[in-house]
Amino acid sequence: MFHLPTVQFTEEQEAFRLEVRNFLQEHVKKGTFTPTVDSWLSGVDPSFSKLIGEKGWIGMTWPKQYGGQERSTLDRYILTEEFLAIGAPVAAHWFADRQTGPLLLRYGTEEQKQFFLPKIAKGECYFAIGLSEPNSGSDLASVRTRAEKVEGGWIVNGQKIWTSNAHVCHYMVALVRTSPFDGKNKHAGLSQLIIDLHAEGVTIVPIKFLSGEYHFNEVFFDNVFVPDNMVVGKIGNGWEQGLAELAFERSGPERILSTFLLLDELVRELKQQRNKEGLKQASKLLARLWGLRNLSIGVAKLLESGNTEDVAIPASLVKAIGTKFEQSIPEIARLLIETYPNLEANRKFDRYMAQSILHAPSFTIRGGTTEILYGMVAKGVVAK
Amino acid sequence: MFHLPTVQFTEEQEAFRLEVRNFLQEHVKKGTFTPTVDSWLSGVDPSFSKLIGEKGWIGMTWPKQYGGQERSTLDRYILTEEFLAIGAPVAAHWFADRQTGPLLLRYGTEEQKQFFLPKIAKGECYFAIGLSEPNSGSDLASVRTRAEKVEGGWIVNGQKIWTSNAHVCHYMVALVRTSPFDGKNKHAGLSQLIIDLHAEGVTIVPIKFLSGEYHFNEVFFDNVFVPDNMVVGKIGNGWEQGLAELAFERSGPERILSTFLLLDELVRELKQQRNKEGLKQASKLLARLWGLRNLSIGVAKLLESGNTEDVAIPASLVKAIGTKFEQSIPEIARLLIETYPNLEANRKFDRYMAQSILHAPSFTIRGGTTEILYGMVAKGVVAK
Amino acid sequence: MSEMKDMIIDVAERMLKENVSKDVVDLLERGDWARGIWALFEESGMFSVAISEVNGGAGGDLEDLLNIVRLTGKYAAPMPYAESTFANFLLENSKQSVVDGIATYSLKKGLILQDGEISGTLPNVRWARFSKYLVAAADSFQGTQIVLIDMKDATIEQSSNIASEPRDAVILDKVKPLSSAVITDEQFFNALSIETAFKIALMTGAIERIFDITVEYSKKREQFGRPIHRFQLVQEHIAQLAGETAIAVSAFNNVCAAIQSKDFLHEIAFARIRIEDAVTTITSSAHQIHAAIGMTHEYPLHQYTRRLWSWRDEGRNSPFWSEYIVDYLLKHDVDLWAYLTKTVGKK
Amino acid sequence: MSEMKDMIIDVAERMLKENVSKDVVDLLERGDWARGIWALFEESGMFSVAISEVNGGAGGDLEDLLNIVRLTGKYAAPMPYAESTFANFLLENSKQSVVDGIATYSLKKGLILQDGEISGTLPNVRWARFSKYLVAAADSFQGTQIVLIDMKDATIEQSSNIASEPRDAVILDKVKPLSSAVITDEQFFNALSIETAFKIALMTGAIERIFDITVEYSKKREQFGRPIHRFQLVQEHIAQLAGETAIAVSAFNNVCAAIQSKDFLHEIAFARIRIEDAVTTITSSAHQIHAAIGMTHEYPLHQYTRRLWSWRDEGRNSPFWSEYIVDYLLKHDVDLWAYLTKTVGKK
């Protein structure tokens, strides 16, 4: 069950990797952006997103008729790796590119695809993901936000929480209850709606992150009208649609590289010191990264070949092991290079250390906690 | 809840430590015994046990009238540490000294105390512990071995398993069912009997350890008669009696020092190489050992002062953390000193490494698995 | 341990509990600090604990002081109590007069004392912007000196650590110290080790608090219809928290006992190495049990975890003390077990 | 990967599955070995895989061979298959004639070739007592030589590793080699790295088997009235086993792919370091799930865990390959990310 395909990148793929890398390095030099740890969640920069959109690097695997480039999954993988390895601010368009696009391509109406996808691809339209609710935690089936049918649409009432970057997003794909809760079948009666975040009745309240930064929000819906044409897929099918969305998005480079900037800086400083013993410790981290990357690329390759059946378990494993790896980097690095973590430090090592430490606890919580993933993996392998 | 007493050993205690150490070092020189890892379970040597008994070092905390020395718990702690740090073969009398003696002192009849304790103290009478049964694992309440009342005693039928060193023991304290199983109160109807392992109907079948060694056994009871005067404590009270026994025996030095010989040899070889970086890694192990030892000595001191209420949680913690520490030593050591583990190697490091690796998996299984301990600790702290 | 210990500790804990709410801890992030509890501490003599009676002290000992410092860590009290008391400890131990009011200190390299004047820059000086005095180590032709500086004479560049505590750069340009005294290398090393004991005290306090907060949360929070402490994977986290907390507290108590016995350098080394290990496990398990709520500013957990992540890199840390142990082992032909049981060279 | 791969692999796995029962693995502990499966392997041409056609080989490639080696690890087949095929690999790569029958090898220091005669002692030589030939590295004035020795000329001192596999000392006293050839340092290093690939293959196989055995056990075994795989803490162990197994298998497959592409040294370094990590987690979680039964000789788990504990310390191990990576990083001014993505120096 674990024999994933191996990938040796082609010359074209390598050339593309270098193209992306050169572009990004140039923009770092120009000062277009300042690299940061965990930039796929905290690096919100709409003007950078538009720049990326112009390059054709958002929705690049989508059909050309919807603004895509019809490039391969592996090209997108390479692109994402380069973004994260350099710490580029890709958070604004992240979820629209990674989740909403594929969701609409799979379940959306022609009208939805034509309306949303080209805007997303241009880097001008951002989506938030509306899953969690107060006290729902890992128990996503306990969704209480409800939509009631009215003439021509739905009236939504309720509340979503921990919504990353909702304050800069235009829309949210929200999981809502369209039939009353059934204790025996908690997953029935859920649907996905696209909610305009600027519509009447929507209130977005920031939640301050522990560092004082601002990434996530509470979003309140008070009699928000959502027209029928904003229903994604089938009414009542929201759980399956949402689950598929989650499972395929667990294994990307963002589960391995969130703190890569710090690892890079660690190796740079150790090399400057010619600190052989420190580098030996670091080489273990490189071996771990190499092992995870093989697995993650193998999953991408499987997805590209259309084999989605064997993907769920290795994808969950990438997330479970990868996020712990990301967390381990600051803990190991601080013992190898003297540091005093400070968000405003001039020294990169101290700054990346501060960013890594403060963001790290999120890694094993967001997008499915490690505990939930362990259960999913175990159930999966036992059932085989 | 975690403020355990600290202990600074007195001059008398220190003198006693040195007395024991000199005695043991002398006997290593003489060749009386060859130090081994995990010697408290695998180092069976009745002649050494008798030697120790002659010194008054078995049952040393017990009343003099039963062959004890009325020494303190801390003296016994020191003695045990010295045995384990040098890898002395104390397995034959181990359970009789650690468990049976205290059990009889607490629950035994005057006749039992007078009969058994002096023999144990002389190092001539060894006890096995009869708890586990086939398929019972951590679920000790599922005991099926049953004792039926007959004229003047009990007839025992059933089977115990994983009985350490039963093949050299004279008796077993067995947990048996004296009333039918009650699904609603699984802990009721259990009793403790002393069974003569040479009685008619007792069959001891060796279980080969994975290394080919021979530490544990299956013990079968086929209509074994146990006279009434061999009942320990009250009929039906076996669960409470057995539990108390377990809880107080979780936190001794044998949960910290089982692989100390290897750590000692590691530091010795690293010092010879003047390998500073390797020693730095080793210093972390020393700090872990120091931390565990404080906790373990703190529990011993609490027990000495008669405070048994606050002991259960820290005692379980010593076992849970200590046994993982013991397991970690070979895994860390092999990366610091080149080795090829071999049970017959001349080089101590290779030999201790082989012994440590092969015994290590047992550490977190025997005497309460780590998983069971986590549950007990969590329930304990939540209930406070 | 002095006899007054239990009483002082009780009083200090009561004052902190009543006066240091989450809002008070948050003051730091608005550029202010807990002047109220500082004043209460002054009134009740908390600053004269462990200062000798000659110098006007109340007669407690270092163990009493360390226990109060532990409590200020447990309540994340945003005031320079550890700094001011340790500054006075440095003054007393170099036979200089102690000071009243807010003082801070630095034992980092960076200052040079020449011709009676001090110049140099010290980074990350705790609470410098609020301090009246700075006690620091300065290099001089006579060796290391402990110097007392009036902060009016210093230039300050404000900065803060990831717990929002003031950690300012202090720049001195030909400043005349209020007093100074040469100390031996051994005295300096002793000062470093007592500084480490202060950090161990603070970290132990924060660890205790994180444990309490997290266990409490695991009882209240429900998921899938049950309080989360009933899930085995949460129990594992709780057990690990309990274990690391027990070891940290016991390490701290053993450091105190060792200081009383005057033979404490190796204990401090072991305790610091071990407690830094504990910080990794504790912060990670506590945040994992709390999940998203623990990442918010509103919830108090981060006031303790952010402090641990800052404090563990202050003063002399794990690599320094590892080196200390290694140097000892390489210099002395000791039996490891004798070393661990403090019976080296005894027969 | 050659086209015959799937077929060969299927045949090899079927033969191993049918012929290597627990009893057969146990043969080693009674001084015997699996002559039956050896004969079957000989009949079906498994020894000529990856030997060039000139030398009478069947035309498979190294990847095919490594996959068969992986299977011999998966079934703990007690025969010197990896040893014999690697010995022939060494001969072919130094342009010497390959041999038939049981061969073993050593790449350790210890032999000196002078005036056409070899002397020295090699410790822990795999299967020496059963071998007809030994292929070894010997130092000479011309540099390192790969030499072929008739084992009739050697003195053997029997010993075994903790998996009861023969690991004998071989003593040579002025022995004339059957053939010999000088190799360059680069060729020698390549040989070391392919030897490491063989070990990675064996370990991966054993890891796969441990995973299968353990998951199966977790389904059958009940405690407290439920199959144990339903307890969260067992699920955690299963997930960790699954993760480490997936990473080991994928590391092995990537090593094979890299060998095909001729650019494999860093892959082998990473894979070896990573798989040694996996061994620690896998052996510990598998034994913990099995509890007492897994510690018995009767239950098959130990036939795989004991092999992993032995094999991980054979050949060039994690510290050696860490040093290789570190030396590369220190010698070359490379960007880390370019290094990891194999785009060093490309623009």
Automatic annotation (TrEMBL), chains A, B:
<keyword id="KW-0560">Oxidoreductase</keyword>
<dbReference type="InterPro" id="IPR052161">
    <property type="entry name" value="Mycobact_Acyl-CoA_DH"/>
</dbReference>
<dbReference type="Pfam" id="PF02770">
    <property type="entry name" value="Acyl-CoA_dh_M"/>
</dbReference>
<dbReference type="InterPro" id="IPR037069">
    <property type="entry name" value="AcylCoA_DH/ox_N_sf"/>
</dbReference>
<dbReference type="InterPro" id="IPR006091">
    <property type="entry name" value="Acyl-CoA_Oxase/DH_mid-dom"/>
</dbReference>
<feature type="domain" description="Acyl-CoA dehydrogenase/oxidase N-terminal">
    <location>
        <begin position="10"/>
        <end position="124"/>
    </location>
</feature>
<protein>
    <submittedName>
        <fullName>Acyl-CoA dehydrogenase family protein</fullName>
    </submittedName>
</protein>
<dbReference type="InterPro" id="IPR006089">
    <property type="entry name" value="Acyl-CoA_DH_CS"/>
</dbReference>
<dbReference type="InterPro" id="IPR009100">
    <property type="entry name" value="AcylCoA_DH/oxidase_NM_dom_sf"/>
</dbReference>
<dbReference type="InterPro" id="IPR013786">
    <property type="entry name" value="AcylCoA_DH/ox_N"/>
</dbReference>
<dbReference type="InterPro" id="IPR046373">
    <property type="entry name" value="Acyl-CoA_Oxase/DH_mid-dom_sf"/>
</dbReference>
<dbReference type="Pfam" id="PF02771">
    <property type="entry name" value="Acyl-CoA_dh_N"/>
</dbReference>
<feature type="domain" description="Acyl-CoA oxidase/dehydrogenase middle">
    <location>
        <begin position="128"/>
        <end position="224"/>
    </location>
</feature>
TrEMBL record, chains C, D:
<dbReference type="Pfam" id="PF00441">
    <property type="entry name" value="Acyl-CoA_dh_1"/>
</dbReference>
<keyword id="KW-0274">FAD</keyword>
<keyword id="KW-0285">Flavoprotein</keyword>
<dbReference type="InterPro" id="IPR036250">
    <property type="entry name" value="AcylCo_DH-like_C"/>
</dbReference>
<dbReference type="InterPro" id="IPR009075">
    <property type="entry name" value="AcylCo_DH/oxidase_C"/>
</dbReference>
<keyword id="KW-0560">Oxidoreductase</keyword>
<protein>
    <submittedName>
        <fullName>Acyl-CoA dehydrogenase family protein</fullName>
    </submittedName>
</protein>
<feature type="domain" description="Acyl-CoA dehydrogenase/oxidase C-terminal">
    <location>
        <begin position="200"/>
        <end position="307"/>
    </location>
</feature>
<dbReference type="InterPro" id="IPR037069">
    <property type="entry name" value="AcylCoA_DH/ox_N_sf"/>
</dbReference>
<dbReference type="InterPro" id="IPR009100">
    <property type="entry name" value="AcylCoA_DH/oxidase_NM_dom_sf"/>
</dbReference>
<comment type="similarity">
    <text>Belongs to the acyl-CoA dehydrogenase family.</text>
</comment>
